[in-house]
Amino acid sequence: MSEHREFHYRLPQRIGGWRPGSHRGSSLGAGQEFVSHMRLYDRPDPRRLDLRASLRNIQQEWLVRVNRQQASIPVHAVVDVSASMGFGSRRRKLDVAAEFIEALGQSTFKVGDALGMLAFDSRERTDLFVPAMVSRGMGDTMAKLLRTCSGEAGDAAGLQDSIQHLAGRRGLVFLVSDFHWPLAGMNAALDSLVQSFVVPVVIWDAAEVEPPTHDGLAQLRDMESGTQRTLWMRPRMREKWRESANARRRELNQVFAARAMRPFYVIGHFDSEAMSQYFFEVAA
Questions:
Q1: How far is the C-alpha of 70 from the C-alpha of 23, rounded, in Å?
Q2: Options 3.30.420, 2.60.40, 1.10.10, 3.40.50; which CATH number does 75-282 get?
Q3: pLDDT tens digits for 116-166?
Q4: pTM over 0.85
């Protein structure tokens, strides 16, 4: 198995929660981020006594330092395992998704966050469900499930069924799919994740974005419906192919932008450094 580097992630907002972690928290506790001073009488914690501030206090009261505690967050990967994810000119898109999950597993374990997985095609795939937990081998376990699975045609109803477990909960959600199914119903699904920070991970194969370079007959098959078509590949057809790919990208960008989400595109292989840069930009 190839080694996949972890990436660094952080959220733009503070995280509420009692479990210590590496993210900026909103709760007061034994953290390193100074907030203010309080009277020892109001916050009876002698360990946080600030002698210098107390001596300078005009009212001659004992003062303690109040800090914010860093917190951990639950991380979930919601993975599309529909038929179209089985396509790939060199590797299946499901294998690329598994590569991302392995890197995600290393990344979450390094900072102490719990990681879980949900999957869907036309319905929720309960056989691929993995509850969120902190474990060194969690990413490898989930990646192995993805590499050995197959699915039916996907749609937004399957997505909505799978993410109902996350509705109203706070956390970080990676939505991993090629989004080649009809987007009707996507808005309702995304609305249920309004409390979470959602990162759409759009996995495409290079053969989907760029048409064949040679002229002639090309046999094409829709992985979702199984429908086959024969096209005469020529310069105008290649131009329309690229236009269609760009139009789909703009459509996805608009759907996600309406909910302040920024998609991360993966074509061919997962780049951990690009994902780290993505989080630096959205959290800036």
A1: 5
A2: 3.40.50
A3: 999 998 889 999 999 999 998 899 999 999 999 887 776 778 898 899 889
A4: no
